[in-house]
Amino acid sequence: MIRPCVPAKLSRPRLFNITNRNVVFALLDEKQTNHPVIWITGSPGSGKTALVSSYTLERNLPVLWYLLDSGDNDIAAFFGYLAQASGEAAEDAHLALPTLIPEDLQDLADFSRRFFRSLFARLPANTVVVLDNYHTIDPASVFHEVIQQAMQELPHDIHLQVISRTAPPPRFARLVASNLLGQIDETDLYLTAEEICLIAHKSGLALDEVTLQLLQNQSEGWVTGLMLMLEQIKQSGASNPSASIDNHLVSGYFSSEVFDPAPQAMREFMIRTALLPYMTAEMADQMDGCEHSRKMLEQLCHHRSFINRQNGKALLYRYHPLFRHFLIDQFNRYFSPDESRCILQTGATLMEQHGDVETAAELLARAQAWEEDQPPRLIMA
Length: 381
Prior knowledge:
By secondary structure, this protein is α/β, with parallel strands linked by helices. It is built from 18 helices and 7 strands. Strands 2-3-4-1-5 form a 5-stranded parallel β-sheet. Helix 4 (108-122) crosses helix 5, helix 13 (281-288) packs antiparallel against helix 17 and helix 17 packs antiparallel against helix 18 (357-366). 35% of the residues are buried.
């Protein structure tokens, strides 16, 4: 008998040589006990999908997996695929699901309630329904209203986990306030020093303490960054692994996932502001010569584009070390020598004003604006 082909978008991702994240698994257990819905947010490559897939395997939980894409903004297509997915996951496939007809679009909330009540009744107890790549849905789509209905119809023995690069939309605020929706943020996904050592050991590399510390400092717990750096060490075959981490594999990842898809204005903004190790929106305004930097920075934060926002006396923004290194490497490709010198000198002035004399000197050196008795130094190792 030929087994029906299940589309990739309805299949739990296959895992290869995965290290179980036991600390985060315990957090998922706690969240799932206290919230019917868990929203998992993180930057590209932070291990969100692998975490949920390995968690459901380790806990032996039934799964209905749905990989979202822009085509799911067509709500009829979404319901059709979801009905197909439920056929694969159903315990009682004889329970019929409502079929969306044009008249149902007049009261989509009512149809959604009926559909999800029937869907959840078909599924085995403790099933985890996973919506992966939620950030691909248009913010204005009616899809969000449909998912609100799904969240409100969840029975006590069915769970929903949403994987996204962005936080829950504002329209879900009431669900967060009522404790229906719990969240796991990017900081929860960071690898610990112990996990980095374990993953490095499983990769088959015998790394010294200096290299392990370098990997930890540069990756800052970012899963994909660590894996790419380990692969690069393997490829280099260097006797001194720490000297071989020049990040060209990581750079390729940043190019395809974040930098190349961004509009030209955003790419130039990121390159200019990456010269600063940290910045306020006002500092970014001066680096970019505009007055909309706060909006740009918040947009980068919203999409988890490898930038952190730190609250304090002033709101500070800081790029991930690997991403900053990548952006600085693009600098001379985007600006003429005269433009480069002006931008670097502006950055040096800002750093000096904020008491960071060392970075100011590095920027001046790169601009070839140092004093004769002060030899130039690189901006970044």
